[in-house]
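Structure representation.

___
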Amino acid sequence: MKAFGKWLLAIGIIGCITLPGYSQELLRIRGVIIASDSTNMDYCNLLLYDQDSTLVTGTTCYNGVLDIAYNKTGDYYLVITSLGYRDLSIPIALKTSVDLGLITMEVTSYTLNDVTVTSRLPKIGYAQGKAEVQVSNTSLAHLPTIKDILGRAPGVRSDDNGISVIGRGIPEIYIDGKRVNSFSEVEMLQPNEIISFDVDKNPSARYAADVTSVIRIKTKRGAFEGISTQLYNTSIFSRKYSDIAGLRANFSKGKFRGYLGYDYNDLSNKDYIDSYEYNYLQSGVIRNTESSINIYDRRDHQLMIGAGYRFSPKHDLSLQYHLAVSEKESNNRGEQTIHQDDAIQNKFTITDTGEDKSNSNILSVAYVFSPSDNHKLSFWGDGIFYNTTVSQTIFEDSHILENDDQILYYNKGKSNAQTLKLEYEWGVNDNVQFLFGVRYGRSESDIVSKIGYQSTTGDYQTDNAISDDNYAGYIQFTHDLEAIGYRIGLRNESSVYNAKANGEVIKDDTDSKWFPSVSLYSNNLSKIFEFSVSYTSKITRPTFGQLNPARQYLNNLSYKIGNPSLKATINHNATIDVTLWENLNIYASYDYYKNPILLSGVQDTDKPGIIIFTPINIDKSEEWDIGVSYNKEWNWFGLSVDAGVTFPNVKIPFMGSVLKRKTESYYFQVSTDFTITKNTFLSLNYNYQSKSIDLMTNFTASQDLSASLTQYFFKRKLSINLSVNDILRKSYSDWFDKYGYVEAGQYNNMDSRNIRLTLRYNFNNYKNVYRRKSNYDQELNRLR
């Protein structure tokens, strides 16, 4: 707390001393850019020239919103460009801010085999070390889901578990500048809502210290009066049938805007899994193997209601309520065999049935105050309330020793989190910007766990209570020169953590750490060469699940338990990024991790024949990543290629010695897009990941081939998409662990190959006018 107070005082002193000297009011050129059909232009370039034809400033506009700033009066001309449209030049006498009203762009096209094709935007560009992906007016807009779209970005991978960035983990995702609470909310986005997104693999001190990558999505915030809706349904044909249905509704009138979204998912899958555990004892080796069939049925309801009111150009208020209800049923059956020194000791048939119910209620509020064009004060407040109940019945039918048993597992938890965030942006002029922010978050969790055994009286029960208070303050300075720019940030985070088990304090910890970030980048240096160099310091704190000391049954020879003594992992990253000829990108990054966390298997001290899987810290690990990507559009055909290599360096204790993990791994992705007719689009995508190492875990090679065909009807109000995913059924890797005197592994035959049929119908030119304004993702992730 003391360190945090000093940090806030420093922010105030620096701001009071520095900012007044930089103050200079900006002049704005505003307007609305529309196409010849009176719809807002999705994307344009805005270039402001002086009378000597010297470019003085430039920017891009989305969804037709023209807004360009400059700090000197004079006579200029504004050039508006967009692929597929004629360039437009407008003379400007800039003495005060100017409103140009409606500006109409005229479309240009060419003919190919009797098909009229409008020129398309380049899909992927690079700026300041970030990949910028254009979706609207490109082939990506015809892909079936948001996950398919995000997975096309260089270094981004999508699977059944969500989205990840190679070498940087799970990204924090923003929609229209506002952070989302869970990936399920991202999945509610439909492809025709998205304009573009960018991927930042090395985010600055503006972002929380545990955020190692960021994806920012821009949507079409439709400027219309009245009501618009969209209905959609996806049928999934795999080993078991699944269905996803939903609707969107927007309302806009005057200063008020409203949004309603509802999704219902009825998902089922059937997986075949073979697993093993080898426990090396002094008296011999216990080999525990199991072949199982796992069937899951899940029903999810998602409801989002949002409203916003713009009192004036200076004041904007928005509210959102998000309800998520989930119910999952499992019915698993496995055949287990236990060997000791190559002799069969016992065989079991194990049936495992369970029910997992959860619900969350989330309320978010946001207020933005913009007293002038170069000043903005933003406030976010969020509250989340999360309940979960897990009940599980496991029956072990012994075939040899006749020591049958029944285990009842019950887990009930209540969690809540609240966050407050205040951020102030000062756009001093076109070249200088200051950013100040403070944030407070509190998370609480109370979990009761019970395990009951029919054959013994050794029942187990714990009541664990965990709380975490997080305080953060940050400052960031950006200075853009004519050819290069730099950004310097500094963030302080202080945490007060308390954990109790059955009323006894097992951890009471307070820490305060500083996290700097530095970035140097080019600003339109040339069309041949652009670059960026960056450094960041990050932290990964243990989740509540990793710290929770409650037992979780795995099988009759192993269980899982948390570790309250875990330390946070500190990461230092340096990255260099080079772009050649606008569409060829090369990058190299180095990561050093202090106290990385891995899930180890160790022998129970009281019963060495039992394996305890628990997270631990190892001393350090290192990783080098080198990657290259290329993308190009040729009229009716588009190509994207992404490839890279990773060099790990980690040491793992095993069987009284040390395993050195230094084997490199490779990844490769190629995507092709075809415009067959003006309403028919075909996409193919192939991913390959070689065998790889993540700390102590070895993964086998994986590959994923998918295809997607989209057809539009009725002036594109109706779209039908047919997609085939994981055609080769090789998208899931097998994995193998070695730690201490324990080996474990799993062979996967997952329910991943499927055919999807998606229908969407748009009423009243559906466009999204409201996106959530939330800020509590950091707390929500720790509750898991």
Notes: Helices lie at 2-18, 146-150, 183-187, 544-547, 777-782.
